[in-house]
Amino acid sequence: MLLASAVFSPIAYWPVLAGFLAAVAVLLAFDMFVIERLTSGAPDSAEAERKRFKVSLAWTVICVLMALGTAYAFKVFTLAELTANPTLLELSGERYAKMTPETASSAFFLEFLTGYVVEMALSIDNLFVFLVIFRYFGLDHEKQHRVLFWGILGAVVFRALFIGVGAALVQYQWVLVAMGVFLIFTGIKLVSSEEKQLEPDKNPFIRMLSRLVPLSPRFDGARFFTRIDGRRAATPLFVTLIVVETTDIAFAVDSVPAVLAISQEPFIAFGSNICAILGLRAMFFVVAEAMQKFHLLKYGLGLVLVWVGLKMTVLPWLLRDELTNPTGHVPIPVSLGVIVTLIGGTMLLSLAMPQKPAAGDGDSAHG
Asked: CA 281, CA 147: separation in Å to the nearest integer?
């Protein structure tokens, strides 16, 4: 059966998944209809800018606290379920089979936090690219809000699909190893490659869109579509949304294997991933300028991907011990410590060693 090795299968525990998705829908609606109104105002007003920053900062903090609350709630839920049904741990094979309900629920909690930290760091790096995209298309605050909302909604859908497929595939050991090798090469490429230029005109989805519907050269407020000579046409805002969505799909190719390397539990992989991107819109407006100072973050992220890839490939063979560690599993606290050190270290180094300004920085995508 699909996801047969999952301790908590989304199929068997569909009410939990439905409840989580309902909460996500409520938060997205609150972001769109409440936070959006609170942050609206005259674009050139200093008072509006201060209000916008305070509201975005408060919502970002709330999103982080809700993510931590979700991780703890999942721990409490798993402890209760495993205490009532200890045989559930046998479904996971060797990974959790020898754990008690208490240690397993704590492991789930740490895996959720680790996945959340990795996805949050990757999301911050993605904001570099979104900032470049918005500057390229000349979007003001109102248009950025609209694109980010629908972009995040699309990201939730695509991540669910990718994680669902990935969680089913990683039951095969060779798939897990292949993902690990891919992450190692991706991490090395991220560390060693030069920054890429943004070229929306070469985006295959934009080319396909231009064949399906006329493209308007001008914005029409915050509308995705307008009319030219009575014909329906896509505005540059819709083109921006397509670029953001396809860029996020490219990001998911890296982030989904990374989170599945941390945990193959669908609830943990999906939950930590979605919690990380839910507050992305507010975070963008909090750190839109400050994040440019983290110019060394891509090196930390590259090393994190290499580390996660090694966890999936080489380290299980090196750490395997028939008596003390038959699976060769890296302790979750150790993995979380390495990830936090790499990400936090490169962010601190970025602040300690500011990047020298260079011509054309505004047109380059980070990572």
From this structure: 9
Kindly tell me if the per-residue pLDDT of 134 is higher than 80.
yes
Tens of pLDDT along 295-341? 787 888 888 888 888 887 887 777 776 666 656 677 778 888 888 89
Q: What is the pLDDT of residue 136?
A: 82
CA distances from residue 149 to 36, 144, 227, 289, 293 in whole angstroms, order as listed: 10, 9, 23, 19, 25
CA distance 33 to 223: 16
For residues 170 and 147, give the distance between their C-alpha atoms in angstroms, rounded to a whole number: 33
Q: How far apart are the first and last CA of the chain?
A: 39
Count of H helices and E strands in the chain? 13, 4
Q: Are strands 225-228 and 231-234 parallel, antiparallel or unpaired?
A: antiparallel
SS3 199: coil
pLDDT tens column, 48-106 = 677 777 888 888 899 999 999 999 999 999 999 999 988 888 766 667 777 889 999 99
pLDDT of residue 71: 95
118 to 67, 254, 257: CA distances (angstroms): 13, 11, 11
Q: Could you give the residue ranges of the DSSP H alpha helices within the chain?
A: 14-30, 36-38, 46-84, 101-137, 141-169, 173-192, 204-212, 236-262, 266-278, 280-287, 297-312, 315-319, 332-352
CA distance 357 to 352: 15
Q: Of how many residues is the chain composed?
A: 367
DSSP state of 88: G
Among 126, 97, 86, 74, which residue's Cα sits nearest to residue 270? 74
Dist. CA 288–CA 236, nearest whole Å: 21
pLDDT tens per residue across span 185-211: 888 887 887 655 556 666 676 777 778
β-pairing verdict for 196-197 and 364-365: antiparallel
| Spans of all domains in the chain | 14-365
Residue at 220: amino acid letter: D
Distance separating alpha carbons of residues 260 and 186, to the nearest angstrom: 15
Q: What token pair was written down for 50?
A: 């201060």
Tokens standing for residue 207: 């080319």
